[in-house]
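Sample entry follows:

_____
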Amino acid sequence: MSFYGNRYYHLNKTFLSILGQWPFQSRLKGNMMVGIALLFICSLTALELIGLITGITDLSIIMENTSPLLINSLILVKMINSICNKYKMKALLENIEQTWKTTKIGPESEILRNYAEQSRTLTIQYAFALYCAGFFYTMMPTLTSGIYMILPTNKTYTAKFIYRLEHVLDVDKYFNLLMLHTFISVFFLLSVPIAIDCMFILCIQHACALFQGIKYKIGCIPSSDFVVLKPNIENDEAYHIIIDCIKSYKRALKFSDLLSSTYATSFFFLLGNAIISLSFNAAEIIMVDNNMDEVIRIVAGNLAQLVHIFYLCFTSQRLIDHSSELQDAIYNSKWYKISLRSRQLLAFTLMRALKPCHIKAGKIYVMSMVHFSSILQVSMSYFTMLTSVQ
């Protein structure tokens, strides 16, 4: 069994393999899965776009087709970014595997296992939330129709498709076929952020584990009440531990920089797209006459987007916090009870630790919980603007 077949990373491997984005799968299988995923995603996007263009004079059609088109465009950017940066993802995974293999059994190995277990938990939660939202988003017309058929009521219910296409073709005639196509397409649409974002969560957790391991090493620096200021290097145990910490710190910084560059483009597009799509979805509830099942569908779509943005900002914030805590570990160490050369090394390390690691969107905006709240505020502002022009 390969290293990534273990319980910690097996789900990530499975999700990425579904899209053909697992760096270690065969090229034939990968290209085939990419082709299938893009076929369904692009065909759904094309149908929504045709519906929007042909009904451009109808406000309700504009509102109902623009929202899913914005989401689809974001997911396509994620997919393209993943395809273009597949070699970087492979480098990240190889780095993780190498770290596990070179870490000796002990407290540092336990730190890696704990953070990998957290990554697995976050992956399960994230996938469950998005797939549940996708189920309610896709199946509400069918579920509501079934309820009306079962319940003894004189009311009739005409299932409304999840996007406007009745002015282009006979939706009632092809309803089942369109629903099947939409269900499969939405599955692939959801699998893209789940696979790619869970890969991001995995890497963030590993980076946090690296910083936590460095903090542990710093806490283990030996000290003595009787300080020899200039001992021989061979006998200066604190010096060698600090050197090891610096090497680990450089690896953690290099890993974080590679991770940030891998996702910088897709995150930059995410910021503007999320604000507009959240605003459109919220305004659709007020500006368009909707049944209860349609309101549930729109709310499910908005919740999925919020979960998507929240998890990315939350995990990015964890990286900032863990890299910032390194300076506290240095401050709290007994630096005054070690040799002069060891103190100098700690001082240089502290100077670098004052600048925490960030995940940046387009090398401009820092992904964090502060930025998540800013996205919500701006989305509400656009929502107010859209409803005011009703």
Remarks:
- The chain has one domain: 3-388.
